[in-house]
Specification:
364 residues; alpha/beta; Rossmann fold; 2 domains; 6-stranded mixed sheet; 17 helices; 40% helix; 18% strand
């Protein structure tokens, strides 16, 4: 526990918070773009410990939350087929589609299974040659290597009954969209450590320079987050625009180069729609055409599904840092974990779920 407990030391966290208080001289708005960091901030009350001049807003850092409604409905259409075993991580089962979710498909007799790795889905495909096995491949850059490996393994095994429904999104284009918006409020970014562990942080200096916004690679423990905030505030106060690494124990500038090459071999960049936000150019990955045999969207011909979001849900504004969950009229009433209007209320990394779980119902 050595390398965990020391990053949860309350005295060390408070000493960093004290340093932030001594450093800050004016208001600053910072955004984390990682659902794990969002939950850590709310769970440990880090936002409550900070001086009033520092406001934390929560970006689109939850891949489940930004998976477009159309793709959820595609998943539901595929999962309802009698010839399909549909596999997914558990936090996707409660995400609402237009009329139902994967749990209701399973309750109606659909073969929907929770797996812990896409390679588990490959194993299921080998064990069930008379069924089509589909894995719901969502995520940021972090989960891409495992999803790519599942396709490569299925190809090597000659499996004809395995495919993936892809909803991969990338962080740098999302930051570009947020900072380029005329409504942007963000003045500094905390970068997601797990994304940077795979991809490095070589894509960010040009963004920081273009928008004159400092960025700090940050981990997930309370001390990690406090140190990331401190370094961001210090850069803002000193007028420095650069990308710093406060998570050097896990992240290098180059990242995991072999994993990046593997991703590039199987995936290619594409425009991607983000739920509640809209289409962000070149913000996603899709399978290259030579891997079409593993493309569930094409295999089951579900690409033309159209949808309509709930008019009450303001998740898009929340994920852009323009609002917070308690600004939503439906929060905690018409929208709760038992009956969610959007994915941000049911995902394990969703900001609305964090605010609801930890009792943060009012501003402040």
């Amino acid at each position: 526990m050595k390398y965990i407990s020391e990053y949860r030391d309350a005295k060390l966290v408070h000493s960093v918070i004290d340093e932030i208080r001594r450093t800050v001289t004016r208001p600053w708005v910072l955004m984390e773009i990682c659902g794990g960091q969002t939950h850590a901030i709310v769970r440990h009350g880090i936002d409550q410990l900070l001086p009033p001049a520092i406001e934390l807003v929560h970006g689109p850092g939850c891949p489940v939350c930004v998976t477009p409604l159309e793709l959820i409905d595609q998943a539901l259409a595929i999962a309802a087929r009698p010839d399909v075993i549909f596999t997914s991580y558990g936090d996707m089962l409660r995400v609402p589609g237009s009329a139902r979710d994967l749990f209701s498909i399973r309750a109606s007799g659909g073969d929907v299974r929770v797996v812990y790795s896409p390679l588990d889905a490959v194993k299921i495909a080998r064990q069930n040659p008379n069924k089509q096995v589909v894995f719901f491949a969502i995520g940021f850059e972090t989960t891409a290597p495992a999803n790519v490996m599942s396709v490569m393994q299925a190809q090597n095994l000659g499996l004809e009954n395995f495919s993936i429904l892809v909803s991969h999104v990338r962080v740098p284009p999302a930051i570009h969209a947020i900072l380029g918006s005329p409504h942007n409020r963000v003045q500094g970014f905390l970068l997601a450590g797990h994304v940077c562990a795979v991809m490095g942080y070589h894509e960010y200096p040009s963004l920081a320079e273009k928008y004159r916004v400092p960025m700090v690679v940050t981990g997930f423990e309370p001390l990690d987050i406090a140190q990331g905030i401190m370094q961001t505030v210090r850069a803002l106060e000193q007028g420095r625009v650069e990308v710093e690494n406060a998570y050097a124990r896990a992240v290098t500038f180059e990242g995991n180069v072999p994993a990046q090459k593997m991703i590039e071999r199987v995936f290619e960049s594409c425009d991607r729609k983000w739920r509640g936000i809209g289409t962000i150019p070149q913000s996603g990955w899709r399978l290259r055409s030579e891997f079409d045999r593993f493309n569930a969207e094409k295999r089951f011909n579900v690409g033309e599904i159209q949808t309509q979001e709930s008019p009450l849900c303001i998740a898009g504004k929340i994920l852009q840092g323009l609002s917070k969950p308690h600004d939503c009229s439906a929060f905690g009433t018409q929208c709760a974990p038992e009956h969610p209007l959007g994915a941000t209320m049911v995902s394990s990394e969703g900001v609305c779920a964090a605010y609801y779980q930890y009792g943060k119902r009012e501003n402040g």
